[in-house]
Design brief:
By secondary structure, the protein is α+β, with helices and mostly antiparallel strands. The chain contains 14 helices and 19 strands. The protein is about 35% helix and about 20% strand. Strands 3-2-1-4-6-5 form a 6-stranded mixed sheet, with helices on both faces.
């Protein structure tokens, strides 16, 4: 005997029963209306709430918040209505999705769950859409049943349920839902697949939707195996750098070189996926150029959300935000210790604070510093000797007193200050993307 829709849903949600709260992404359409009704009538669940995102993209949508409010009021479920701004761009679908999920991330607290109503037909659609775009295994795995979202989780409990089952439940319980006019517009790729392509496929192969969804499951399992392999391949490369103060992800290059090209790409995709959007397989030439550059070179690979740098035999991920800082001179009254540097972390005297009036400046080239026991030394040469990565050097705060370069931060004890009774410590800025 086939399980009922409520039983199927609760089984899918069983791993999340102890979450602090469940939020339903409630558009007012068929899928989310059925999901809301099912959960509002279930017992012994975490606290339940609904979130309606108003994109402001069409006049008809102005009436939807009121409809959603009336549905939630009738079911006794609190509703939060959020208005978002959709950034203009080449893909309106993608821009709306990005705005929607950014709002969802804002309201999903630690350990909480956001539930969305995508179903089996949506999964088949997604697989076809990505197949036509030439996606790899990760993309063809389509929508995962769950994934991290902010400090909580995004869960899709209806991926094993067909649209026909949802419609039957909605009619049986006399539910009212919104039909989004844009869903009929075949200029949008997904709508074209839904209204033109999938009906033709199912006319010839009635089980096409189920078969496509099952294929996505197989590919999801294959991707899980590739992720396991990547984890094994990254173990040897994931070693602490000699610059523990530098809060950027990095890998040792030599263990990666021992892998085949395909395994290198797999390991790097796994490592970089949380940090940036990645190019397709035709655009990895920059990785090989970075990998094979001469030892004294400092090549980089520009990606969508930052850059991959190679310094000596290590690669570093440098997010776009890393270069967004002010290199203007900063006055430093020593009573203000530590000193906050605009966009560049903070600088701190450790030990007896020296007397005088100080300024913090950044490298212009040609700086000379007094090194105990070695006399006056060129700063560039000292940095080269210590192997400080090139992308850090422009951010290195330099302490001046009366136009004299007095000190450089003690970077992992590279060289001592001129006096032994204090040290200058720099704590670089961290940011959310890819930094500790």
């Amino acid at each position: 005997m086939k399980p009922t829709l409520p039983a199927k849903l609760l089984q899918a949600l069983s791993p999340w029963r102890n979450a602090p709260a469940w939020h339903i992404a409630f558009s007012g359409g068929l899928d989310s209306t059925v999901l809301l009704h099912l959960l509002a009538n279930a017992k012994d669940l975490p606290p339940l709430g609904a979130i309606h995102i108003h994109h402001g993209l069409q006049a008809a949508a102005d009436a939807w918040p009121a409809h959603c409010q009336s549905v939630c009021d009738a079911l006794g479920v609190p509703l939060r209505i959020m208005r978002v701004h959709v950034q203009p761009g080449a893909s309106l679908e993608r821009a709306a999705r990005d705005a929607r999920y950014q709002a969802f991330a804002e309201v999903t607290g630690a350990g909480e769950v956001l539930l969305t109503g995508q179903h089996r037909d949506d999964q088949a659609e997604t697989l076809l859409f990505r197949l036509l775009r030439g996606a790899g295994v990760r993309g063809l795995a389509a929508m995962p049943a769950y994934r991290p979202l902010a400090a909580g989780h995004l869960v899709r409990p209806l991926l094993d349920v067909s649209r026909v089952e949802l419609e039957a439940y909605a009619h049986e319980h006399r539910l009212q839902w919104i039909e989004d006019p844009s869903n009929a517009d075949s200029r949008f790729s997904r709508n074209y697949l839904r209204h033109r392509v999938l009906p033709t496929l199912t006319e010839r192969w009635p089980q096409a939707v189920s078969s496509l969804a099952r294929t996505a499951e197989h590919l999801s399992e294959a991707q899980a195996l590739l992720d396991e392999l990547a984890g094994m391949d990254l173990q040897g490369a994931d070693q602490l750098s000699r610059f523990p103060w530098l809060p950027l992800p990095s890998l040792v290059l030599a263990p990666l070189r021992e892998l085949s090209d395909a395994r290198q790409r797999n390991a790097l995709r796994h490592w970089l996926t949380p940090l940036t959007r990645l190019p397709d397989s035709d655009h990895w030439a920059s990785w090989y150029s970075l990998r094979d550059a001469k030892g004294d070179a400092q090549p980089l690979w520009r990606l969508a959300d930052g850059e991959l740098h190679r310094c000596a035999e290590r690669i570093w991920w440098v997010p776009a935000a890393w270069s967004e800082f002010s290199d203007a001179t900063v006055s430093w009254p020593t009573l203000q210790n530590p000193l906050e540097l605009p966009g560049n972390g903070r600088l701190e005297f450790v030990g007896e604070v020296p007397k005088g009036s100080f300024e913090v400046r950044y490298r212009q080239g040609g700086e000379i510093i007094e090194v105990p026991g070695r006399g006056r030394r060129d700063l560039k040469r000292l940095l080269n000797e210590c192997g400080v990565p090139g992308f850090v050097r422009g951010r290195l705060p330099l302490l001046y007193r009366d136009e004299q370069l007095l000190a450089v931060p003690t970077l992992a004890g590279l060289w001592p200050n001129a006096t032994g009774d204090w040290q200058l410590h720099w704590m670089p800025q961290t940011c959310d993307q890819g930094l500790s």
